Amino acid sequence: MTSIKSKSIFNRRKHMASLVLSVNYFSSISILCLVPIMYYVLEVKVVIPHIFLAYGITALMNILLFYRHKNIHLTYVIACFLGLLGSLFVSIYSGGIE
Predict the structure, then answer these.
(1) Which of 2, 15, 30, 63 is 20 to 30 A off residue 40, Cα-Cα?
(2) What are the distances in angstroms from CA 61 to CA 56, 66, 79, 93?
(3) pLDDT value of position 61
(4) Averaged over 10-22, what is the pLDDT?
């Protein structure tokens, strides 16, 4: 009974790690693809593309650090903090929400 329960917990953690990494990959790569569009097409060249670039790079570094320390909880907390920090800076530099 305990081996079935431990396999179930292991499978849940493995699925959770896969989901967190997939979301991080998608968000960082999509933001990095958005940076040249904002910079060259939309001609937004002041602060916001730099914030997006910093977010994309740090999110990718967070993923790479996960493969070193194997702690999905820490990776998730850092990803949430990066998202909150990025949205805060974009709100500040874009005039906020009116």
Answers:
(1) 63
(2) 9, 9, 10, 24
(3) 96
(4) 84
Q: Residue 45 is encoded by which pair of tokens?
A: 């060249």
Q: Which long-range contacts (CB under 8 A, 24 or more apart) does 90-93 make?
A: 90/48, 90/51, 93/46, 93/47, 93/48, 93/51
Q: How far is the C-alpha of 13 from the C-alpha of 73, rounded, in Å?
A: 10
Query: Domain total for the chain?
Result: 1
Residue 15 confidence (pLDDT): 83
Within-domain flag for 19 = no
| Contact yes or no for 53/89 (Cβ under 8 A) | no
